[in-house]
Amino acid sequence: MTAPLNISRRTFIKASALVVGGLVIAFSIPQAKRFLLPGAAKETGSAGEAKLPAPNAFLRIGTDNTITVMLAHSEMGQSIWTTLPMLIAEELDADWSKIKVEHASASPAYLHTAYGIQITGGSSTTWSEFDRYRQAGALTRQLLIGAAAEQLGVPAANLKTENGFVISDDTKISYGDLAEAAAKLETPKAVTLKDPKDWKVIGKATKRLDGPEKINGTAVFGQDIHFDGLMTAMVARSPVFGGSVKSFDASAAKQVKGVQQVVQVPTGVAVVADNYWAAKQGREALKVEWDLGPNASLDSKAMLEDFRSKAANPGLVAAQLGDSKTTLSKAEKLIEAEYALPYLAHSPMEPLNCSVRIEKDACEIWTGTQMQTTDQQAAAKILGLKPEQVKIHTLFLGGGFGRRANPAADFVSEAVQVAKAAGVPVKTVWSREDDVQGGYYRPMYLHKAKIGLDADGFPTAWEQVTVGQSIMLGTPFEAFMIKDGVDATSVEGIADSPYLKKTPNYHVSLHTVKTGIPVLWWRSVGHSHSAFVMESLVDELAHSAKKDPLDYRRELLKGHPRHLAALNLAAEKAEWGKPLPKGVFRGIAVHESFGSFVAQVAEVSVDQGAVKVHRMVCAIDCGLAVNPYSLKAQMESSISFGLGAAMQSEITFKEGKVQQSNFHDYLVMRMSDMPKVEVHIVQSTEKMGGVGEPGLPPVAPAVTNAIFAATGKRIRQLPIGNQLA
User: Measured in Å, how far apart are the chain's first and last C-alpha atoms?
Assistant: First the structure.
């Protein structure tokens, strides 16, 4: 049985029934120090505190038996709207049909248990909340039993709970009927969690709680917000990053019906109107003369050549062992290769938007965000307010992929600036073109590798140079994530690769470049490029050694059982080694990211240069699978997202400007091109990892390794595009 938890090292806040009607449980833990931002609000509340501060509860039981779970994180399609309530429902013995969910406001009570800010990202939500949400449920159950014991005059030990009731022999009392009495009891000093063998909810495939409202259209996203007096704004921004307004003429814009104001803000010129269409037409009528600044000559091809010249020499050391240089000179065989990956846009389906209402000593913000803390701080700084004077209403996110978790709080800050300049409540809307051409991007990378092999074809020395921008430089995370000049996210999946651990001599280095292009984490962060490079290189080594790619990996991954478990399960389900239909070929890849291990087998055909992916078989070891239904959905979405990037997506620059604009030229996966996807879960009791991002990294190398099997041509640059034509 799980050991009782010492509540004294945490803080419980139990609200008075007179305050809220029912029982509210808040549950916070000391802040993690790792990513604590300067000026971040400190933890509030103390043991025994009776009054609940601004909404910070994790759980509310109403007298009508409803159980409302406050979601500390943001639901952006990853199904935590369902998974986190499952944790509470398990320990509470709740009636699942009575569960409701609300996004929590920005508050110190909801700081990430590991990162110290309120954030949804890094595939961390479920593992980071696994204890806290279960503890909230267990504590609440204990209080309800205590209330029932007092009411019935029986020992608490004689009572049990089931499906929303406390039960004593033939007597059943609903949680709703006990809520107010439970709220008046002393907080227990410890709670005991269920033994996993008694779980009824955790591990059970559970359909999404937010499914119906997203299907029937009642789910509220940021774009759905409207209230009396709310205007809509669109901002004209410099067509080149780093540019600024030299002058503007708003006379034509103001003639557009519905345009109310034209105001200058730090990011450009905003047209404020009665509605989106008027704001858009007004912006098109606006005449702005731009100072394009220092980046007016940016060109992707020239940048790649610059990256290539830097890769000719080692960069700052990220990892090293032994004497790779000498060993390479004595190797039986050398493999040398260069890999390149482009800038990528996040392109969430719901365009960026943010609604702001500013009052004398307060500000309210409605938006879909992944990083409430930084947004709140940024808005407060602009307005000269304290962070707690800024209220963030978190809404459903129509996709994020990292774009809405911006340390610069760019789209929220801009919206606050527009509302401040206009003096009225404003919803600032980015068109898709605005974000594709003026947003933040996954950095472009170039890798150069030289690998020495022994007589059996296995690596004895490995040198690899990576060139790319840092996503951490200049952010509040720089001090934690950049050591000795090396951004850990630029070399993750390389510097800690299991293949290097099998190699007696290696040297991994990094050139961090500055280009003037804003960059940000993108789904699976550094693993989005490192897995493609490492799994392609290993495939090159296997073919050089004339060994089966699966068997070769198995040899190198001895001592890495979780890699092997995922690899073997994927191979088994894909029937690796058995004949395929004529013209169809397999490729395989395995990669660890965010604490989870994912292997994939791609079945691909190539006809006159056109690549078709027929089937993707995926196996994952993420430790405990809290909701297998959501886990499989995350793998499926990662494969779709990863296939789009591998096959077609890229952002390029010419004369300082982004050349793509929308989904007609920034190509993503179409439904008609989607292959059959099979997802299998490794039964595991290992440490829990994430599932939102680890499904993406193996996609590209599995596909390109299959292309090599089909054509003998090694794809070393993404997207695949028309390289085979």
Answer: 61
